[in-house]
Each structure stands twice: as structure tokens, then as C-alpha cells.
UniProtKB/TrEMBL annotation:
Belongs to the SURF1 family. Its main location: membrane. Keywords: Membrane, Mitochondrion, Mitochondrion inner membrane, Transmembrane, Transmembrane helix. This is SURF1-like protein. Residues 17-88 are annotated as: Disordered. Probably involved in the biogenesis of the COX complex. Coiled coil: none annotated.
Length: 355
């Protein structure tokens, strides 16, 4: 009759055989030979098996047979160069460094410098021209000859002259609109018929007739009936003024329409053909006071110009403008060419020898 210790021993043996059967079967399937443990070895390990049943089984760890020390290290190579020994280069990326804009920026300062130099020459020419005209103004007025050569007027431009004759108000021409102190109006141009005392032949006054720019009138006195009778002298008058060259029409001024009595600029040759006079232009001069000017404007009497040179001379401003533009664009060009790359456009080029 078996005791209780024998039954406990048999149950432990069956439990150990069941636990060891799975690795034995796996080894048999893999082709490895395994030996069945003897009952005595099972009994020896029964006590240790009961003690380790409560602990989890650990998976075996497999390690490579090759050690890390056996691998070749880059530092052992005598030709090896690290990135510290050969630093990287900072380069600019993003396509071409400069495009057509740089060419345009380089042309601007050169062009501005040339234009500024040209304005220096223009300033010298205009200064000499104004000085020549002012010298003519201080001279005594000359009597206007009966016949004036149109080609000689250039040498007498801004020369003070005087003439006697009678106004042909029936051939009056209004040029405008013209502004004076903010008021709209017209320039009154009237032919002056000169008699034989000024050198013309008797009975042939039209041969000595010249065109006289009498001055400015307000727009409300466009018609002669609205003017004071003193604005339309009928007897002989003496006119003193400046002999001027014929005006030149600019591209923005419309053409005159003499058939409708509309004149936008003084076309001296055209007006001379319409009135049968010489192509000679005289601008009447006067120096009235302020109160006298206001009275003449209200009565419709033409207000003549002052005996002065009214040529504009703005070339000094143009010189400053062009030279300033040349300096500014030159600085911009230098900054664009010498500008260092920014953090966004700078990149690190990898060293070709780095491996």
C-alpha cells in the first residue's frame, strides 16, 4: 500500500514531464537529437522546480559573435579627415545670383550722370543767353524800320523798339485762353499800320504793317462792345515794346482755326497772311501800378507785359536731381553686389572629401 508521499511524488513527476515535453518536441522537429531525462534527475530537480514555478520564464538572449572592437574604425585610417579639420563653405543658393535687374540698376547711374553733365552745359548756355537779352533791355529803344528782314530778328530778340501807326481794330485777333493771376482771358493782337513818316511809301501802309501784342484782357471783355472806348484808340499811337522771334507751337497745343476766329497760339506767319502785314511780332510793354492794373482790367484795356526777360532757368534743379539720382543708384548697386547672403539664402555645402 502506497503512502501519501508516493502520490505526491508521482504527481510532481507527471507535471515535470509535461513541462519538459514541449522543448523536447521542438528540438526533435528541428533535427536536433535530445535525450530523455532519467527519473532520478527529475526527482533531483523536483524541489527546485517547485520553487521556480512562481517566477516567469526568461527568454534567451542571443549576441553576435563579432565584437565591435574587431571592426575597422574611421579614425584608424591615416587618410581620414573629419569635418573639424576641413570646415564647410558658406554658399548662396536659389538660382542665379544676379539677373537682368542688376543690369538695369547699373545703367541708371550712368544715364543719370550723363544727363546731369548735359544739364551743366545747358545751364551755361541759358545763363549766357539771359545775360545777352538783359544787356539788350538796358539799351535805348530803336525805331522800327519800315521793312524788317525776318532772318535778322534772331539777332534783335528782346530788343526794345518803338513805332508809330494806327491800330486796325477790325482785324483784331484774340489768342487764348491765357491765365493771369488766376483769371482766364485772352491776348489781344492788333495790326499796326505805319505811315510814311516811319519810312514807308505814301499810299502803301500795308507794306510797313506789323503785328502788336497789346496785352491781356479778361474773358468777360472778349467782345469789343463790352470794353471802354479808351481800349480802342482810333488815332495815331506810339507803341513801345520788345521785338520777339516767332513763337513755336508745342505738341499739346491744338491748331488755330482762323475761319472761326479761334487762335490758340501766336502763329506769326499765319496771322501776317490773314492781315496782309509783315511777319514781325512786337510785344507792347508797360509798367503800371497795382491800382492802375485793376482799373484797366475792369475797363477792358489790354495790360501789356513788363520789359524783362521771362525765360525760365531751372537747369540748376535738374543738375541736382540727376546727380543725386546717380549717387543714390550707385550706392544701391554697391549694396546689391556686396550684400552678404542672409540666413535664409545661405546654405552649407557638404565637403566632397567627407565620407
Amino acid at each position: 500500500m502506497k503512502g501519501p508521499s508516493c502520490s505526491v511524488r508521482q504527481s510532481l513527476v507527471r507535471r515535470l514531464e509535461a513541462s519538459l515535453s514541449s522543448p523536447i518536441q521542438s528540438n526533435s522537429h528541428s533535427g536536433r537529437t535530445a535525450t530523455r531525462p532519467s527519473p532520478s534527475s527529475i526527482l533531483r530537480n523536483s524541489k527546485t522546480a517547485t520553487a521556480t514555478t512562481s517566477q516567469p520564464l526568461l527568454r534567451p538572449r542571443f549576441f553576435s559573435q563579432t565584437s565591435r572592437a574587431s571592426r575597422p574604425q574611421p579614425a584608424e585610417d591615416p587618410n581620414f579627415t573629419s569635418i573639424l579639420d576641413n570646415p564647410p563653405q558658406l554658399v548662396r543658393t536659389g538660382g542665379r545670383r544676379h539677373g537682368p535687374g542688376l543690369i538695369v540698376l547699373a545703367i541708371i547711374p550712368v544715364t543719370a550722370f550723363l544727363l546731369g553733365s548735359w544739364q551743366v552745359q545747358r545751364l551755361g548756355w541759358k545763363t549766357e543767353l539771359i545775360a545777352k537779352f538783359e544787356d539788350r533791355l538796358v539799351r535805348e529803344p530803336l525805331p522800327l524800320p519800315p521793312r524788317v528782314d525776318p532772318d535778322a530778328i534772331h539777332d534783335f530778340d528782346f530788343r526794345r523798339v518803338w513805332a508809330r501807326g494806327r491800330y486796325r481794330h477790325d482785324q483784331e485777333m484774340l489768342i487764348g485762353p491765357r491765365m493771369r493771376d488766376g483769371d482766364d482771358g485772352y491776348m489781344v493782337v492788333t495790326p499796326l499800320e505805319r505811315d510814311s513818316e516811319d519810312g514807308g511809301r505814301a499810299g502803301d501802309r500795308s507794306a510797313a504793317t506789323v503785328l502788336v501784342n497789346r496785352g491781356w484782357i479778361s474773358k468777360k471783355h472778349r467782345h469789343q462792345a463790352s470794353r471802354d472806348p479808351a481800349s480802342l484808340p482810333t488815332g495815331e499811337v506810339m507803341v513801345e515794346g520788345l521785338l520777339r522771334e516767332p513763337w513755336k507751337k508745342n505738341m499739346f497745343t491744338p491748331d488755330n482755326r482762323p475761319d472761326k476766329g479761334e487762335f490758340y497760339f501766336p502763329d506769326v506767319k499765319q496771322m501776317a497772311e490773314l492781315t496782309g502785314s509783315q511777319a514781325v511780332w512786337v510785344e507792347a510793354t508797360m509798367e503800371p501800378g497795382l491800382l492802375e492794373v485793376m482799373d484797366m482790367e475792369n475797363r477792358g484795356i489790354p495790360i501789356g507785359r513788363a520789359a524783362e526777360v521771362n525765360l525760365r532757368n531751372n537747369h540748376a534743379q535738374y543738375i541736382f536731381t540727376w546727380y543725386g539720382l546717380a549717387v543714390a543708384t550707385s550706392i544701391m548697386l554697391y549694396m546689391v553686389v556686396k550684400k552678404p547672403p542672409t540666413d535664409i539664402s545661405r546654405r552649407v555645402r557638404m565637403n566632397k572629401e567627407w565620407s
